[in-house]
Write a structure and sequence with these properties.
single chain; Immunoglobulin-like; globular; 5-stranded antiparallel β-sheet; 3-stranded antiparallel β-sheet; alpha+beta; 2 helices
């Protein structure tokens, strides 16, 4: 086998491994996704409405909780737990700071353990709804796993 063929096989194997891992995580935790707004959407600062879908079919004993957080490096701003409705939809509003850009804001949909859920709930309760200091952490994947990331574009002030 030539070098290019071997590299192609390795890339294909890595791609299948990543896809397989995603299927395994969805099987264990359910399929929860952000569907609106789309990635790289231009939004004004302040409150932004997010919505999505979920399929927890066969997950009678779902492990953990799903949260929305914003992130910059090792700083996290817990936005709130997602309320998974029976119609397989969810809708939440998050506050993305009141300052204009141009800048980007990263919103993560994360799956958290019961332990991390209690930490985020307590922090959110103590911090209030907006303008609070971030949580600085390097969370272990067993307690905090990114399901989906979303980058929102915040324009310069008109």
């Amino acid at each position: 086998m030539d070098l290019i063929g071997a590299a192609g096989t390795a890339v294909t194997a890595a791609d299948l491994t990543v896809k397989g891992w995603g299927v395994l995580k969805r099987w264990r935790n359910g399929d929860v996704r952000i569907t609106h707004p789309p990635n790289r959407k231009i939004v004004n600062p302040g409150w932004v409405d997010l919505s999505g879908t979920h399929d927890l079919t066969g997950h009678k004993k779902r492990h953990g909780h799903f949260w929305l957080v914003s992130r910059s490096r090792d700083e996290y701003w817990p936005k709130g737990e997602i309320d998974l409705k029976e119609d397989k939809q969810w809708h939440e509003s998050v506050h993305l700071n009141d300052s204009w850009g141009p800048r980007e804001s990263v919103v993560l949909l994360v799956h958290v353990s019961e332990f991390m859920h209690e930490i985020l709930t307590d922090y959110k309760r103590r911090a209030g709804r907006t303008n609070y200091d971030p949580v600085r952490m390097h969370p272990p994947k067993t307690h905090f796993s990114v399901v989906q990331g979303l980058i929102l574009q915040i324009p310069a002030k008109p």
